[in-house]
């Protein structure tokens, strides 16, 4: 895996709650499994509840197998029994604002604290597709719906205790993107790579904007590039096949996100970009304040009817 791809083994209190979107497969699967293995309360949020249940069962089985293999090296008096991983599932479809709001309201109704929000779910489509809300599929699923979740959960994160974090799984593919409000919704043209890059670029730009405009700075927000990870999503593309020899597996891809979400040494680090399990730098493009303002003006207009009524109490707009 490489010595640079690792995260510290920390003991997470069982009352510390993590949401992992897309936690039933790929990178998200390993994020959820490892954080729950370290003791955290994990909620995986995804579209297919049957697949989510299967994933939870598989995580438990893998954990128990790995636990017993370690126990076998100990004396009989030192051995203990494996515990039940504290993992739940919730339904979330990022391609629908209505269904995203349903997830948001259902979580709020739990009256449960939220300590870390890991926005990992994402898609990469070959051809232009529009959502039921009439937005380009990757724009809405990878960016707009994630932003909506952040805006609703910020007050909850701010009141859940110390060291609350928002962690976004982004991509170095942001370099292929650009902000063009005349074509932001693929009104004029569509390119699979460019539009995917746009959605990841906008994640990073919104991170910088929020870092500046959120009134309570106690909640940190970071963006993580997991490296090129071999998944079902990427294998249908010619560049995916070409990159296969250099790709990481799901666990390796998850390490950077897990470290950003759990490493105590990163407490208070906000508005930063992680790559290869360390803070890295981006190009100057997403750091441009005028572009950030232009993007967020558009984003707030799109999300207007779904925004929290009291949003101006915690964000300078």
UniProtKB/TrEMBL annotation:
GO molecular function, one term: oxidoreductase activity
Keyword field: Coiled coil, Oxidoreductase
Signal peptide coordinates: none
Gene3D superfamilies reported for this sequence: NAD(P)-binding Rossmann-like Domain
Entry keyword annotation includes Coiled coil: yes
InterPro entries named in the record: NAD(P)-bd_dom_sf (IPR036291), SDR_fam (IPR002347)
Family matches, as SUPFAM superfamilies: NAD(P)-binding Rossmann-fold domains
Coiled-coil residue windows: 49-80
Source taxon at top rank: Eukaryota
Alphabetical list of PANTHER family matching this protein: RETINOL DEHYDROGENASE (PTHR24320), SHORT-CHAIN DEHYDROGENASE_REDUCTASE FAMILY PROTEIN (PTHR24320:SF152)
Family, similarity comment: Belongs to the short-chain dehydrogenases/reductases (SDR) family.
Annotated protein name in UniProt: Uncharacterized protein
Organism per entry: Patella caerulea
